[in-house]
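Journal club side-thread
Mid-discussion, someone asked how the predicted structure for our own chain would compare to the paper's figures. Pasting it here so we can look after the session.
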Amino acid sequence: QTWPHWKRYFFRFDEFMGWPHKGGDCFFPDAFTLFFNKRVPLFVPRAWGSTTGATQFYAVWSVLPTLYVFYFACMFLLAKKSKSKTTRLIQQCFASYGMFHFLFQTDMVDYRYGRGYRSEHSELFHWLEKFAWRIAILLPLYQNCTNGHWKRSKALRFVLLRYAAFFVLFQIVQSDSIKFYQFMKGEKAKDWITILGWSNVPIIRHLHYPYRIALIIMI
């Protein structure tokens, strides 16, 4: 429903290739069985919707956890530039949490497209991963602003600091805080925009996609 309408292009490419799409099972068993057999364990989530989209998801998540581990390792090392022992320790704790999660916990996130393992605790691990994502965005911004890395680029610092403030307000305060509270109470997740009935306001409805693109670029 929002430009650039990726799903439409995925479906067209699926039709061109003769692949399953439009809500059907588009799981690719060979990616999980090394082409030796077609039997996939029941704890592996299935893929549906678009084979093109699912294939891209497979490719990205085959390498993304490893990249995140190196990414958090860099944050851990950059924390040594902090002049305060307390802030250095806090930064290293956040970075260590990120490395630990993407080394040992990310496979417990029961997601579609074959990612993770089916588990009754998958939503909890999904929230633990969301915490790691928030750290992955905010911690580098803090480090680069405080260690003088962006000292010569005032324009970049100006833009990214305001993006950080917007991210905290729009993502963490407006969405994560209330949704985590609802998750703990076993309620359906709704952000403040939905609760207040502002979802169909044009400026807010069209803000989500550009925000997601900016979020992916920052990650």
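Post-session note: Residues 144 and 150 are 6 Å apart (CA to CA).
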